[in-house]
Amino acid sequence: MEASEMEGRTFMQAISEKYSPENFPCRRGPGMGVVVVPSGPQGSPMKDRLNLPSVLVLNGSGISHAGEEGEIAAFCAHVVELDLSHNKLQDWDEIRKIVSNIPNLAFLNLSSNKLNDAVLDPGCAKAFSGIRRFVLNNTQVSWDTVHTFTQEMPELEELFLCLNEYTTVTPAAMPCPTLRLLHITDNSLHEWNEVRKFGSMFPALDTLVMANNNLSSIHDSGEILQRLFPNLRSINLHNSGLKQWEDIEKLNFLPKLEEVRLQGIPLLQPYTSMERRSLMIAQLPSVTNLNGSVVTDGEREDAERFFIRYHLDYSEEELPHRYHCLVTKYGKLAPLAEIDLRPRCHAKVEVRYEDKVEQVNIRLDQTVAELKKQLKTVVQLPTSKMRLYYIDKGTAFGPDELKYSALALHSYSIQDGDEILVVPKKK
């Protein structure tokens, strides 16, 4: 064995250990995996069979090399998903040896392998041509490497490039017409001039997830945005640096946009959570899903009416464009009457004991036991000898005994003018 191979394990060693019958008993049921018996030469160092599922998870297995390619082909013909994250792979040719022997592979995760210095030639990238979902998070792969892959992967639909320390985007010589989802969170793409390059690189882009990039603003005009991202349906700008409502308004120029995630941006800091959602819904008339929650027709109408009222005191030059659109739809709305919905704290009641009636101001946050203590001096009875009844003057219902000492009085909806009847307990 070469010295370099001794640094880590081979792909086949990791498979042999994890999926041997002792460690990974054969499971019954559809789609649960198959028992693979190698068809290679007798005397192969592999065990004679492995219980291999079609989704192989070999993360953190110390893999640095492929191992015997014939064995990979014999064991992995049915595999469709492969997770090789957090291994020691540093050479694209070793990864090619694995991938080229798994003919049905559609998903490959290479996250957290140190691939920033690995050189990729187009011939090697061809081996990845059947992959549809490709994860390269925290690999620090260069944009040149990314472009070499996208040009040799005619079925690529989803690409994950998170945590790669990108501050800029290198444009591609050729667009990738199949990519629908780009996940590029936790990088340092602060400038819109970098983000706009994705439009020409990925013309079919449907979903752009770029949370935690601190994007400062959206500079393009509406006309350019319309041309750049004609198919974008969903965008995630969580924790970006957007500070102006104009940036939010520009999202309306994306012709197919339906879903937006926009939490943690400086623009929204001064508002309450209700105001944030309402103002955002009113500004984005085509968006049907905001921050993961469906926007109903009723919620949209409430938000749009709130938006008009929110801007009633603004001067003409301060009013956003959207205000005028909504006034055309609903007319100018009067401010809502302010209603105090806080629970009442006190009530003035008549306390009746035998032939005596006295007006008493009682606290409604106190318990029945505390009320008895308050009434001790009024009716000259010890609390243990009192039975209290509540009479609601506004209804025809009879007296309601206040039986439960620990219950707060506001549970009984006592109002001013109601009556508390005190009856001495019989011996």
Tell me about the largest β-sheet. Answer: 11 strands, mixed
- State the end-to-end distance: 100 Å
Shape, please? elongated
> Pairing-aware structural class of the strands and helices?
alpha/beta
Number of helices: 14
Order of neighbouring strands in the sheet with most strands: 4-6-7-8-9-10-11-12-13-14-15
What portion of residues is helical? 25-40%
Poorly predicted parts: 1-6, 27-33, 39-47
Describe the overall structure.
With about 425 residues, the protein is an alpha/beta fold. The protein is elongated. The protein contains 14 helices and 20 strands. The strands form four sheets. An eleven-stranded mixed sheet has the order 4-6-7-8-9-10-11-12-13-14-15, covered by helices on one side. It has a five-stranded mixed sheet with strand order 17-16-20-18-19, with helices on one face.
Summarize the structure.
The chain is α/β, with parallel strands linked by helices. 26% of the residues lie in helices and 17% in strands.
What topology emerges from the helices and strands here?
Elements: H1 3-6, E1 9-10, H2 11-18, E2 34-36, E3 50-52, E4 55-57, E5 63-65, H3 69-75, E6 81-83, H4 92-99, E7 107-109, H5 122-125, E8 133-135, H6 143-152, E9 158-160, E10 181-183, H7 192-195, H8 197-201, E11 207-209, H9 222-228, E12 234-236, H10 245-250, E13 259-261, H11 273-283, E14 289-290, E15 293-294, H12 297-310, H13 321-330, E16 346-353, E17 356-363, H14 368-379, E18 386-391, E19 400-401, E20 419-424
Parallel strand pairs: 1-5, 4-6, 6-7, 7-8, 8-9, 9-10, 10-11, 11-12, 12-13, 13-14, 16-20
Antiparallel strand pairs: 2-3, 14-15, 16-17, 18-19, 18-20
Helix pairs in contact: 11-12, 12-13
